[in-house]
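Supplementary notes for students who missed Thursday's class. We covered one full example, reproduced here. Read the sequence, then the structure, then the short commentary at the end.
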Amino acid sequence: MCTGWNGRCDSRVVRNFSRDEKKQYGKTLLDCASSSKNRRAFFGTSDFSRDVKTLKERFANLFSANTKKNGIFAAVLGASVLLSASLFVACAGSVENAEEPKQKTEGNHPETTAFNRTETENQAQDGARLNKMRSKLTGLNTEDAAGAVYGTVFPKLLYASDERAILYDYWGLMVYDLKNGRIGQLIDLKSADLCHIQGEWATHIEVSKDGGTILLYNEPDAGEQFLYDVDKRQLDYSDLKSLGEERYDALLERGDRTFAKTPSGKIVYLSADSLFTKDGGIFHPDDMQGLSIIAADGAWGGAQIYPLFSEYYEKKGEEAVPYLKMEDLGRILEKEFLHEDEEGWRYYLEEDLERESPIWEFAEQVGPLLLTRYRNGERQVLENLLFEDAWRECPVLFAGGRILYKAAVTPDITGIKEATLISIAMDGSGRRAADTIMYRVFDGVCEDGGWIYYSGWTNDSLQPKPLCRISPGFSGGAQFVEEIPGLLCGVKDGFVYYLASHEKDYTGIWKRNLSTGEEQIFDKWGLATEELVFFWARENIFAPGELRVGETSGCSILYMTDDEDKYFVSHVPFD
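Structure (token representation):
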């Protein structure tokens, strides 16, 4: 039994009713208000007042739980007030008079409340309201969206696949076409009052697994729910409160950012500081024009920047320069597949979400990672002293029945500072550290012909550099191979690739035969070693055990030039 004001009782009763059920409930209220017999029958549970003001309040509460329901409220309340006013006059007399049958007078017109319209009339009015809502959703143009200032909450990523990304802010919702690098659709949520991010009301926005359907309504008291078909660009009513198992659930929260992992393994997220002006300032730091999507393929240096409004601001003559940050390179969320051995073990590099690494106790800011393997539901942690910076400097290699990577030597702050090349057996046993081997900087670590090659350290930045090699198990120590007049890019099939200095005939990457010493220009890259202040090269996405389908062997180069303070990435395939 409901107590207190009747309107609150009504709202509880109809909380989960459909529109048709609410109409039927309202009809019952009118029937009870117009019949003294019904009033006596229901007296013990509710006061079905004949007062016009009370009926208006109850209908208002019934059909306008939030501002979204103005369409229903205006149509139903307006007609019902007229009817309740006539009922008040009819019922103002004695009970006996109220029970007498109503006499139809000539010239009376049929009443047109929402409760006694024909189904065709109801559908027509519903359709008119829906068309009005559809027209509101299409009212957002590129200029308005581009100039929108961020809300109190950073724009929210809702969905991402290899084809599209869906995001929204208080101003509206965007469907971005990742395949073609442009905005696909802009949906004006603000005009449709579906834009509540903070406060008492919140807009419920849910995307389906395939990114083709979006469920929209305001909560906590959902009134009209809508389904938007992205491909058809069509809005329709819905009775759903959730898409259930069909909803998209591949979003990951990390700090103040939301990430999406696509079926192909790409990691997609929003960035407000990846676009710069020519003079090095943040491009449009306060509005949507400065926003971009980062799509990283899980490989070191494999991130791509998609400026959302490039087509718009380029037409105005503005230019934004995209720059990747170190954190954008090879970002790992959850776990990244590395290798599968002959025994069926699958090897991964993964986030340490359960804080299994001892690194958390003294240096959690470095981002501990775990090297793990799985088979038939069994999980084994092979290494817990890996961290993000060490992994960026050196790939995880599988060679000679062992696994090699860079990690802390010991579980303490000294071990992190002196991180070095580590070798373990495939089951994690026999851990060996290359902390006493000459030239142990280990730049450009790569594998070729069963050897691990790397470029050692010299007292200055000048060339030549020592090219060294070591067996996967570190037996026999390191061997000096030869000096190379440049920076090591990689070793493949007995050839060493290096970025040469200006002393060579051509500026760029050279290819040298390690057996004969013969060499030739391989790639007129356009830069020489003297022009760089930072240089990393690695073959991790191309190394044995890590090949992606359709890719060729090669290297990724991260560098910074003399006149810039931003990182650049270049991919160089080897023949």
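Commentary. The longest strand covers residues 378-387. Confidence is low (pLDDT under 50) at residues 1-8, 34-54, 64-116, 542-550. If anything here is unclear, bring it to office hours.
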